[in-house]
């Protein structure tokens, strides 16, 4: 598995990441959602540099021209609900992609520091031979993403390559993915990498609860 940490090079990405983290700005829900979307757009562009491309000839009003266009089908998958604006950012750039959605709940046992991922439903097209984007804003423990990957390929088949993308990842979460998905054709992309998790399994310093910030608190 290859790991890409995008904010290790200075770019406008850091502006959006700083606003997503900033307690004085992040409670503007519309801006928070738009910033998640912007990060998704930047990541879609960066990941597109790894695609296979094929030549095509198109007609312009003057003369034909040869261009290079992506040669593989793409599926963008996300875990509801926090993933929706991040997902939309990818879809803004990869607008011909198919889409998959996962309805899941995380049940934490704080005393034992364990978590069970309970899947309610998965909606996916066939994945064989395609490029899968599995996008979720926060890669905290990595448990839900690892299970989501296995559930997707069980139902949809094995993709040619999978790009796991997060806005912020934790070091323990990355290590969990590396262990659980070892040997799988996967690249992991994150806007920023934070070193720790809190006792409540939030990324430290992270940004808090992305779903609540995007859509309001849940019961």
Keywords:
alpha/beta, 32% helix, 219 residues, two-stranded antiparallel ribbon, eight-stranded mixed β-sheet, single chain, 12 strands
Q: How is this structure best described in words?
A:
The chain has helices at residues 13-21, 29-48, 83-93, 143-156, 171-180, 210-215, and strands at residues 2-5, 53-59, 64-70, 74-79, 98-109, 114-123, 131-135, 138-139, 161-170, 186-194, 196-197, 203-204. The protein is α/β, with parallel strands linked by helices and 219 residues long. The strands form 3 sheets. Strands 1, 4, 5, 6, 7, 8, 9 and 10 form an 8-stranded mixed sheet that branches. Strands 2-3 form a two-stranded antiparallel ribbon. Strand 8 (138-139), helix 4 (143-156) and strand 9 (161-170) form a beta-alpha-beta unit. Helix 1 (13-21) runs antiparallel to helix 2 (29-48). The radius of gyration is 18 Å and the shape is globular. It starts with a strand and ends with a helix. The model has no long low-confidence stretch (mean pLDDT 93).
